[in-house]
Please model this.
Amino acid sequence: MKKIALVGCGRISKRHIEAINETPGVEIALVCDINEERAKETAERLAVPYVTDYRKITGIDVISVLTPSGNHPQHAAEIAESTDATYIVCEKPISLTVREVHELFSRIDKAGKTLLPVYQNRYNPLIVLLKDLIDKQKLGKMYQFICNVLWNRNDAYFDIDWHGTQSLDGGVLYTQASHYVDMVHYLFGELVSGKGQGGSLRNLEVYDTVSAVMRFNSGIVGSLNTTVNAYKKNYETEFTLIAEKGIIRLAGTNLNTISHWDVEGIDRPDMDFKLDHIYGKGHNTMYEYIAQEKWDKFPSREDILSGIHLMEKLSY
Model:
């Protein structure tokens, strides 16, 4: 049984708590938050101890960093250096800048620890299916993709102190769409070039809307359009792949349905699934891989650096 400590008891911690509680082989042994009231409330609910300083964490196998985005590099590095935990899980984004992510990896390596980034779209069964088809060249040459992440975050969301700030949030590519930036790296490899336009239509410090075009080493070109300004609620997430031997379109709020399938020699698989919340089930799979020590299922350093490079380039 692997013991896990959660650092940060805010919004995303609830998804991690659910996923860990539903996964055999892992358990929450401790929580930490700089806000003692929040740490205490979470600890009492889980019947575990709490601390307000992550440097005091001991006897833990895995520490999950769930703090505000801009704090991830500092917190993950200091946890690696000051605790005896071997593995450091870090929620997206790993960093808001390429420089910081290089420094983070250097400090993690020097401490002899392993960084495990949270990019749960890699564990979406429909994305895993696409990856398998691409890797086995069953779709032939890849031509183009279109990815749209059309979500809503209301004014109350941006009332949370760090949301929408340049120093800690980074904007829509970092805080909402970073999973989809990682997804296209997972499917198509390293980025060659990317150009885009962004706007702060709601007068935030960061972009709430971005449209970007990209080209990858594999030759494929594609676009990513993302916003948090959809009317009332999340509208849709959709991904269309155009290849030599077929066209596939995934849709739904979290790419959980196959809305179009026309692939040479392959029937449409019956793999649609329902979601009970906006985050999907990828965190569950991630913790299953941790329990099973399947470390190769996590993003490569090259993918992470390439993704941060793209997000930084298009967001500042």
